[in-house]
Amino acid sequence: MFVNDIQDYPGYWFSFIQIILVLFLLGPVNAKTSYIKPHNHNPVHGAPNGAQYNSYQPYNTIFDVLSFGAKGDGVADDTKAFLAAWQAACPIGSATIEIPSEFRFLVGPITLQGPCIAGLVLQIDGTIIAPRNPSKWPKPGLLQWINVKNLHGFTIQGSGTVDGQGSEWWILPEFQLNWLKQLAIRFYTSSNVTIRDIWIQNSPQCHLKFDNCTGVKVSNITISSPADSPNTDGIHLQNSKWVELESSSISCGDDCISIQTGCSNVNIHHIRCGPGHGMSIGGLGKDGSLACVSDIVIQNSTMHNTLYGVRIKTWQGGVGSVESVIFSNIQVSNVKIPIAIDQFYCDRAICLNKTDAVAVSNITYNQINGTYTTQSAYLACSNTIPCTNISMNDVLLTPLTTTAWGLKKALCWNSYGKTQPLLFPNSTDCLEARQPPYRKAPSLNRTNLTC
Known about the structure:
GO molecular function, one term: polygalacturonase activity
Low-confidence stretches: 1-57
Pfam families: Glyco_hydro_28 (PF00295)
Subcellular location: Secreted, Cell wall
Largest sheet: 19 strands, parallel
CATH topology of the largest domain: Pectate Lyase C-like
InterPro entries: Glyco_hydro_28, PbH1, Pectin_lyas_fold, Pectin_lyase_fold/virulence
Strand content: 35-45%
Protein name: Glycoside hydrolase
Shape: elongated
């Protein structure tokens, strides 16, 4: 009865054929996001450049590096396989490059170049290791191991490890190490990028750097290198805006977090720092350069066994400004100097005195509590351009030793602002409450050097 009824409907056969065609075409559409698990990791004879495409069709969105020729034995060079997987995944929407667990992949210096389709994920569940011997790196002057460039909407995540194997770099002469400046992972000119959950360790120098980036989130990562490893900063920010660093642990041989010129709207919270040199803004203004940093919040974090707690450091002769910075709820333990502003920063034997300075203003220290070993606060500001609008509230710092030997009173030099109880030790209450005296601005004879 039903068949007879629909046969009486005008255009029945044409509509029926249309339905059949649609059902037929929907099959490949539904398969577009499917993942065909590779049956094995044996190469396919005749695949271009040794790549292994047997397990993948163009509609796959998961790209296992083993299927592109990677060995994962920690000995064979898997750089080309990583690049092949990257090139295959880059133009695919919401693709994932899989670094599988229980494998060690030796990868040389590599650039993961965009632009790519947004939503690309690098899933690191195994271990990626750098060449151990510095002589194996290309020369001269390649500054990073893993270079991530020109990407939007990119994520690195997973339960795996990125190991820079930096121990042979750390024994190089200091001048040679400083010239090479090798770092582990560098993001450049990228936006809306996320790094979460992975472990980064033993970089030759800085572990993770963001340069000219906008919209960065780092969450729940671990960075680890020995306390005596030279210049192994944890996270380095430069010319980057709208950054959030949260819920991570950093131990290294230099600053846990370093904020350089061009950074603004940075929110750092729930970071465990130590050993290391603490969290720093700067050094800024080196060689008379312009430095601009603003709207920085560092809060709800701990410093243990560090050289400094929270620090601002600038070179004499620089220009620009550091302003609107809040350090709040910072717990320190066995920290040499918990609070520091150093406008006479110098990392060499001799630095000449200069009148120009990066202005420091609107800095808040709120709830900085714990123990120190040398000096509770060291605020050494420019003789020409003093620090202004400094605020200290609820700063309670106790020396670890009960003897006066080795301890210094807090220093406030050309530092102006206000304090509110409680403050301990009493010498921490050293800010000058009056307005700073007028000083003639230095003669710069330079143009376009304002923030």
